[in-house]
Design brief:
The protein is of the alpha+beta class. About 50% of the residues lie in helices and about 20% in strands. Strands 5, 6, 7, 8 and 9 form a five-stranded mixed beta sheet that branches. The chain has a four-stranded mixed beta sheet with strand order 2-1-4-3. It starts with a helix and ends with a helix. The relative contact order is 0.07.
Length: about 230
């Protein structure tokens, strides 16, 4: 079916019923009468393929039609592969979601956003739990805050029937802004590593029993005395 759709998209040879056409190729373009264009195609053993029917005059190529269709299908396949398909992933909460369940869903939401998908988080209020809609709003706002490095909020939480929705879109790669908490944590880790490296350096230079340099000095003095005594003998 797809091949038939591509075939029906282009007119070739005698199907092209106009007075003149513009033939394009590697050497440039030229406008010729349709009969001359058909003769050129016949002489070269190829087809006259109309690639731009709305131009004035219509634009054509002298090419084997099977080769032309192959090129078109290959180009469409490459374009389709380059297109990023954005999906909307849903995360569902209850108004009284426990911490373990919250962290589990938070982890999945991070993965969805890192993959370039959108996230639609919502709190479902069953029966009289609608009385806790403020609690649901607080939960969604916390969810958005915990994901600020990975996604941006597309709107404040909104109640639709028995569901309160929050939409998050992925941030572009390299643009994600780290939270202050994350920056403080990284700074603390870097400081701890620097202190550990400094302490290791001190331990190497001044270990117990006088240190490496002290031991080296004692060995040198002993060697000097031994040499002097050998000379006296």
């Amino acid at each position: 079916m797809k091949n038939d759709k591509i075939k029906n998209q282009y007119r070739i040879n005698e199907q092209i019923r106009v007075r003149e056409v513009r033939i394009v190729g590697e050497s440039g373009s030229t406008v010729v009468p349709i009969r001359q264009a058909l003769d050129m195609a016949h002489d070269q053993g190829v087809d006259l393929v109309e690639i731009s029917p709305n131009a004035n005059p219509p634009v054509c190529r002298l090419i084997d039609y099977s080769k032309f269709l192959y090129q078109q299908k290959k180009r469409q396949k490459e374009m389709k592969a380059k297109q990023v398909k954005v999906e909307v992933k849903e995360i569902r909460f209850g108004p009284q979601t426990d911490e373990h369940d919250y962290q589990f869903k938070l982890k999945h939401a991070k993965e969805f956003l890192e993959e370039g998908n959108k996230v639609r988080a919502y709190v479902f209020f069953r029966g009289r739990s609608i009385l806790f809609k403020e609690q649901g709003e607080v939960l969604l706002l916390r969810f958005a805050n915990d994901l600020e490095e990975f996604g941006k909020v597309e709107g404040m939480p909104s109640l639709e029937g028995k569901k309160m929705f929050l939409y998050l879109a992925p941030k572009k790669a390299g643009v994600a802004k780290k939270s202050q908490q994350a920056r403080d944590r990284e700074a603390l880790e870097a400081e701890s590593k620097a202190q550990a490296a400094e302490q290791t350096e001190i331990d190497v230079e001044t270990p117990s029993n006088g240190g490496l340099f002290a031991n080296a000095k004692i060995s040198a003095d002993a060697l000097k005395k031994l040499t002097e005594s050998d000379g006296q003998e």
